[in-house]
Structure formats: structure tokens, C-alpha cells
Write a structure and sequence with these properties.
alpha/beta; Rossmann fold; 2 domains; seven-stranded parallel sheet; five-stranded parallel sheet; 11 helices; 16 strands; globular
Amino acid sequence: MSTYHNYFSQNKLSINEVIDLYESNRSIFPKPSRMGKLKVANSISEISEKFDAFIFDSYGVLNTGSLLIKNVKDALIELKEKGKIIIVLTNGASYPTSNKVSLFNSWCLPFENEEVISSRDLLKDYLKNQDQIKWGVIGSPRSDLNELGVNGHILGESISKLNECEGIIYLGCEYWDQNKQIKLEHKLQNTSMQILVGNPDIVAPQKSSFSIEPGFWSLNFHKSKNFDIKYFGKPHLDIFEKAIQNIFKISQRKFNLDRIAMIGDSLHTDVLGGLASGISTVLVTNHGLFKNHDYQKEILRTQIYPDWIIPSI
């Protein structure tokens, strides 16, 4: 089953290979309902009056790793002063969402608890309505399975516990590697099992390379009909529906979906998901996936057109 593992033999994927990987798996993503307008602006402030609410990706838009991007705090405060609703939508499942809120608070960003939504939140909601089974979890020793409502084992710590597991959950991959994945795939070859992917990202940009994310490790399971695979997070529509519901709840009114803007650094997660959910989209180019890369070429190649392009918020 392990077709893709050679991509990461030296963890030196190029941006072109990343786009290839996403493009070759478009069948598992939602389809955009339209083409974006492909307009250009200098900042969010310049186009803020066109929208009532803004949904921000985190990495590549607000921060890069542990560093807050310049002018982000002032831009967010300005939006709130204008009466705009701002929320964060992140494909983060390894740790409770409260950890992300605490990080934003440490940067003095103006986000309340209900204004930060993670893919973990959707996974948590889903698990509340499922039968209690023993899960094998790919995550961190600090992933807090009790908070998630999961009875199971962290397989990164002990792959031998896999025989006790009735389903698999991918949260994050910092403690996961190729050898463990191959063992997992081998053990599951003749079984039927539900696989829940708490972070659909295939890769994520880091300082000098790309990190391997849960969406990547899920790809081979699509080759078998034995697995029921469910994704929680961008670009899949459930997380956008939750964000839209939160916006209407906070605003205490409804407005046209095109008055909501999804702002992200990725065509295949942020922009594609936004277009598919019926909201407006803004691609940020200076800090995340397309930093120092020809984003225009990739827009044409993927046929994923954002409504707006800005260098930074």
C-alpha cells in the first residue's frame, strides 16, 4: 500500500511536488462552486468594507511557527473597531483548541474562545454521537484523549497496542513516521475499520521544508474498500458550515455568504473550501505556502481562483 512514502524519504519536497500531490488527490476534496474574481489588493484594510466577517487561517496568515507576522495585531484590532466579525479556522487536531486560544492571547490578539475553531472541534462533536470503541490514535502524548472523549491508545508510543483497536484516528504526525505507517498499513490489510482524519492537510510549510500531515498518511487507505475514511477540517464543508454558523451566532443576524471572506495561504484548503462553501476567498502570498513562489502559475495550473490576492493582511 505504501506508494507515497518515497516522497518523504529525505523530507525535501519542492512546492511543485506539493501541488502535484494535492492535484493527484483532488477526487477526495469538494469541488469549487465557482471561479473567484481574481482581484488584487494591498491588504485586508483596503477591501474590508466589502465584507461583514473574516475567517482567518492561522499559519501563513497570522503567524509562521511561533512568530506573529508583522502588523497582524493592528490589522485585527482595526477590523474589530470597524464592527467586523473575525474568527480563526485551523486544521489543528493534536491539542485542545484552548491551547490555540492561549497562544493568541499571549500575542494579545483580539480573539475570544468562540472565535477560534479547529478541526479537532468537529472531530470531537462527531465522536460524541459514536459508539464507544477502543481507538488507535496517531498523535502526541499530550494530545489529551480525555478532552477529546476518546478511549484508546497513542500508537506513536506503542504500535503493539494496535491489535486492541477498533478504529484509527489521525490527530497529528510529529511522533509518527514512515516505518510506523508501514506497520500500521500491514496490520490493517485484511480488516475493515473506520479511519478518522482530524487534520486533512497533506503537508504544511515549515521554515525550510514541509512537514508531513495526517491527510498524507490517509491517502493509501483510499485504495481499499475496507476503510470508512472521514475528514474533519478544511477544505471539507463541515468546518466551513460550523464557521458560518458561529459568525451568524456572534453577529445575531444573517447576511449573504459573499460578505464572509476566508483568508488563507493555500489554494487546496483555504481557497478551495471557501469557494465550495459559497463564501468569498482571499489568498495571502508572502508568508506561507507561496512565499517566494509563483502563485499565479499555480492558480492557472490548479484552476482554483481566489476572489482576492493580498501579500499580507
